[in-house]
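quick one before i forget lol
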Amino acid sequence: MKRLAFLAGFLGLGSAGVTAPKIIWPDLPQAGFIVGRAATEDDIRKGNAVFSQAGTDGGALRLKIPQYALWKDESGNEHPMILVQAERSASRTEVLGLRDFVGKETVATLPEVKLLGTKKPN
């Protein structure tokens, strides 16, 4: 058993002394997002939206936009993001448009995202 514990520690598998890298959250953007309405193709071209449902939307979600968020990918890894768009699809799915800190865009459903609010997380 001691040998397994030693190997786990040697390989970095133990939890002692291991910390996740600190996230440096940027200020929230002053532009480049959609609030209170469904996005159009023109909004995407202008850089204000991540997706458009081309007139088949179920309306905007009442969420504070922009705000900080953590998106959990298929592997279970969390990624710090900024929420820039929130809509309900025609099938009533809550769909979010997210951007990471370098501008990469992601479309996710609400259950995949942890909303963190408008104050910089610690």
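fyi The first helix runs from residue 2 to 10.
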